[in-house]
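Bench log. Compound arrived from synthesis this morning; before running ITC I wanted a structural hypothesis for how FE3-S4 cluster sits in the protein. Inputs:
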Amino acid sequence: MTQPKKLFIKTYGCQMNVYDSERMAESLGGQGYVTTDKADDADMILLNTCHIREKAAEKVYSELGRLKPLKDARPDLKIGVAGCVAQAEGEEIMRRQPAVDLVVGPQSYHRLPEMEAKVRSGQSALDTDFPAEDKFDHLKGRPKMKRAPAAFLTVQEGCDKFCAFCVVPYTRGAEVSRPAEKVLEEARDLVERGVREVTLLGQNVNAYHGGMTLAELIRALAKVDGLERIRYTTSHPNDMGDDLIAAHGEVPELMPYLHLPVQSGSDHILKRMNRSHTAESYLKLLERIREARPDILLSGDFIVGFPEETDADFEATMELVRQVRYGYAYSFKYSTRPGTPAAERPLVDPAVADERLQRLQGLITSHQREIQQSMVGREVSVLVEKKGRLPGQMLGKSEYLHAVHIENSTAAIGDIQRVRVTEAKTNSLAAVLV
Ligand code: SAH
Ligand code: SF4
Ligand code: F3S
């Protein structure tokens, strides 16, 4: 028997990249690869990359620079770049870093086995097509390995929204939904392998239209035996349909957590971002969602220092955050992305943008702490995902996606346990059995 070859994958960026890395590992599994968590003894290293901000893309080149000595020492080591930097920069990557053997875009992962054979024979391989065939269909026939209780499941990919700052419509292509039967089939397969919770993924997941709406898909998934929890991310305010809002009040398996990015609280900036909603329409929408599910925890994304953002525009963002009180929110300093419409516009003074970002993050963190604190004394359900560091301690997530440590737990991994929160720590909650 030949020794299995070892594959090391490093994943950057969003949850869809996490999902894709798993699919790539399975795809190369058929070529005799097993995954390793040490780059040092790998036969192939894949970086699954993100292009969303300049820093994210530059990280890839510094990592490649660090990997180069490994390759110099072991020329049969193969290095590949996958993901959104691969899609955006293609061949340029091999020019900038000749240690790279393989470049594969997010729509071509099913072609990895042929590409691997090509690089093994000493050639380089590049594929950044948007092929017509369904990559998911080619990723089947994988071994039924046991899985962690919470899994990602891509149902939709790409985006047609073209927000003025964003590379995703270019790196992931046009919006495509997977047929609902395929999604249901994959969900059943995941459940057989121990999964209890799925997070449905899409760059614009609430625009899903795979023969059903997202709400209909969620209702169908809720009927799958053994699937206890459903989440979805990321959504656009304009695609938040009435039936999806209703599902939040009616489907117990749909968890009370929603990531609904708004990006800014200023209507002028929203317009310049090509977001096609206003601060008011967003707040009205949240009101309706909270009517359907009063305890829902909201999360969002913000861009600070978008071109032309004035002090008054920024104050409107602060005001919106005060009104919403997010349980979690992610805020980023605007980063110019070549090829996007906003790239042509004059930048806000970086020092001003930094100061705004700090103030916004301070406000968001204070809300986050207050909400964590308000959980103390309440009962929550925790899907147990792993053992803690202390004896008897188990770790998992509440329905609101809070990380919870259960002391003296009797649960096994994959159980859902009812607990009472005893303490709010910085990034987690402590709880005891009820
Ligand atoms: N599909 C997601 C977007 C993924 S990018 C969605 O539509 O919400 C995640 C977040 O990165 C975005 O919500 C936005 O806040 C931020 N982002 C995107 N492009 C950016 C840029 N050029 N500069 C700074 N932040 C950006
Ligand atoms: Fe990017 Fe806007 Fe599409 Fe989200 S909705 S992926 S921010 S273009
Ligand atoms: Fe990054 Fe691509 Fe995801 S740019 S955020 S990895 S879709």
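What the model suggests: The CA atoms of residues 102 and 125 lie 5 Å apart. The longest helix spans residues 350-374.
ITC booked for Thursday regardless.
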